Amino acid sequence: MQVSQRLPELYFKNLTKKKKQIMEKKENNRKLRVCVATCNRADYSKLAPIMFGIKMEPEFFELDVVVLGSHLIDDYGNTYRMIEQDDFDINTRLHTIVRGEDEAAMVESVGLALVKLPDVLNRLKPDIMIVHGDRFDALALATSAALMNIRILHIEGGEVSGTIDDSIRHAITKLAHYHVCCTRSAEQHLISMCEDHDRILLAGCPSYDKLLSAKNKDYMSIIRMWLGLLEYSDKIMNVESSDDVKSKDYIVALQHPVTTDIKHSIKMFELTLDALISFNKRTLVLFPNIDAGSKEMVRVMRKKGIEHHPNFRAVKHVPFDQFIQLVAHAGCMIGNSSCGVREVGAFGTPVINLGTRQIGRETGENVLHVRDADTQDKILQALHLQFGKQYPCSKIYGDGNAVPRILKFLKSIDLQEPLQKKFCFPPVKDNISQDIDHILETLSALAVDLGGTNLRVAIVSMKGEIVKKYTQFNPKTYEERINLILQMCVEAAAEAVKLNCRILGVGISTGGRVNPREGIVLRSTKLIQEWNSVDLRTPLSDTLHLPVWVDNDGNCAALAERKFGQGKGLENFVTLITGTGIGGGIIHQHELIHGSSFCAAELGHIVVSLDGPDCSCGSHGCIEAYASGMALQREAKKLHDEDQLLVEGMSVPKDEAVGALHLIQAAKLGNAKAQSILRTAGTALGLGVVNILHTMNPSLVILSGVLASHYIHTVKDVIRQQALSSVQDVDVVVSDLVEPALLGAASMVLDYTTRRIY
């Protein structure tokens, strides 16, 4: 009887246990419910790529969209409609803006949002809320979610700018559980703010995922639509034919109030409009955001007659896809919007940043700052300086792969972890913030070495490791060569993503005289044909959306030694390259010397004999005429033609050209004439080094290239015999770098990107 009574108890106990296990399994495998809340046109441009990514993976995520703020106000374009046009279901619309556009209205708007949001969050019950940026609406969202124990993922934390936005951004950071930042500086700021580095993802800006694939689309129809026809007084006036609206011949203006100094920001806006009227170019003016002071700025626009001026088009909103095209092809963008210092750099469009609203932002070299924009003349002068320029494309804020990283990050979130935030005191060590796989992406450069025979492209890491190298024969014509460079760089950049390498830029090493400021090969060596007055920076930057540096191969060898080789840490040293030609580079007070006409360090053309052999430069008696690979090949052919080259144990196949290596082999096997030629070449090089020691007085001379080891002893002998006693102790060494040209090209990128801190 007792056994029969216990059976039902055991049955129900086991059944309850199984149900519990099934429920736990379902809980572990359930979709992540993500709430994305968007407040205005600007934050939607950053959130939309993430929303599309979430929507594309319904097996992992459920998406709830909450719309509030200026999205729902007619005066600001009713921009919620673009969310509907993107085919997103809006779960909730919250009218949270208290009109007035002053400081009190901003506070009241935050309060109204705090009153309305709890009901929405109770109904939706999201696992995580994604909050963007630094707006007062976002602060209300983060506060509500934090107090209701909902995890927060904050986009674009850690950045620095002006106005009250800075304080709001950092306040949201302290409320957020997870952080997606756009730059390494922002990442370091978050770590310094004691955020847990395991919960920080350096992903880049999500908007760049769309930006970097947008520029080649049909843009003229968009330009004509927004700037070709000007509308006023219920009529459409065709000021100029639509065909007269040209790329790079118009301005985009976007200026917001500065909430910490409203009076000054309104005055600055008035001066900006006066300057734009005087500059007399077609201009698209976007209405300011809803911050305190915006109403007064709109009054200034109307007082100046901007909405009826024949050169201006004033609009409340431009869809982001179209706005991208407009700024990408503008002659200039002016104002104080974060878009100018962030997104526009992806296209190299010139930007004039006015006032203090973006103070502290990382910017590319395309941005000209006018902090004290207190006169019309200053702004007008900036317009003359910037309008119509084209700068290298900058990827400071992203590389186009942010959304996949963010989705992977979301999938890694463990909802079983304690909700309570942990702060890391004191700040953690540098460079230990991790990506989603807890493995740092390798900061790398694309290095290009353009030689007389081969064209080589390599992915080079920050430590000087060549991760992968590609080699092709260097074509003979300009068109074939530039197309091959572009093709190889595109392939290498794509491979870099698979290799977990983040490419910061492209460095190019090439023979000849180079203007590194403009990225132009002024005059090439005779070994590379059709390569004079060639702009290398523009096509590569436009294709790869990366900054590009170009320099002479000798200079690159010196840079390689400074960063990775025996010149590391030295204030003054000289590098001599011994290869097909003779080149070099000079480091003086830690800096590379280019000279007034970019002709410094043409060390191969130091004359060491007044009646020496002819040189390729047109002179005679140069070091290169004695000691270069071409010079040794010339002497080897002479000996071979006179049947005085080959010795016992040596042969040259009929189909093989006689070269410098055959001369060196003959000398090693005891050929006296070959030994004499090599000794003369080494002596010429040694005399050149003596001249360098007497002129520059470096602390080290580094011989680089394939012939260096064959010359080193002779060079040292000449120094002992010919140099002043005060420089005879200067060390002369053979470089231990295997690929100095590639490493030097990479060092230009790794030592200096386009980042500048304002």
Automatic annotation (TrEMBL):
Gene3D superfamilies: 3.30.420.40, Glycogen Phosphorylase B. Its EC number is 2.7.1.60, 3.2.1.183. InterPro entries: ATPase_NBD (IPR043129), ROK (IPR000600), UDP-GlcNAc_Epase (IPR020004), UDP_GlcNAc_Epimerase_2_dom (IPR003331). The active site is at D553. It holds the Pfam family Epimerase_2. It comes from the Eukaryota. One of its GO terms (biological process) is UDP-N-acetylglucosamine metabolic process. Pathway: Amino-sugar metabolism; N-acetylneuraminate biosynthesis. GO terms for molecular function: ATP binding; hydrolase activity, hydrolyzing O-glycosyl compounds; metal ion binding; N-acylmannosamine kinase activity; UDP-N-acetylglucosamine 2-epimerase activity. Keywords: Allosteric enzyme, ATP-binding, Cytoplasm, Hydrolase, Kinase, Metal-binding, Multifunctional enzyme, Nucleotide-binding, Phosphoprotein, Transferase, Zinc. It catalyses: an N-acyl-D-mannosamine + ATP = an N-acyl-D-mannosamine 6-phosphate + ADP + H(+); UDP-N-acetyl-alpha-D-glucosamine + H2O = aldehydo-N-acetyl-D-mannosamine + UDP + H(+). The keyword Metal-binding applies. An N-acyl-D-mannosamine binds at R513, T525, D553, E602, H605, E624. GO terms for cellular component: cytosol. It is found in: Cytoplasm, Cytosol. Signal peptide: none annotated. Residues 60-411 form the UDP-N-acetylglucosamine 2-epimerase domain. Zn(2+) binds at H605, C615, C617, C622. The keyword Cytoplasm applies. NCBIfam families: NeuC_NnaA. Homodimer. Homotetramer. Homohexamer. The hexameric form exhibits both enzyme activities, whereas the dimeric form only catalyzes the phosphorylation of N-acyl-D-mannosamine. In the N-terminal section; belongs to the UDP-N-acetylglucosamine 2-epimerase family. In the C-terminal section; belongs to the ROK (NagC/XylR) family. This is Bifunctional UDP-N-acetylglucosamine 2-epimerase/N-acetylmannosamine kinase.
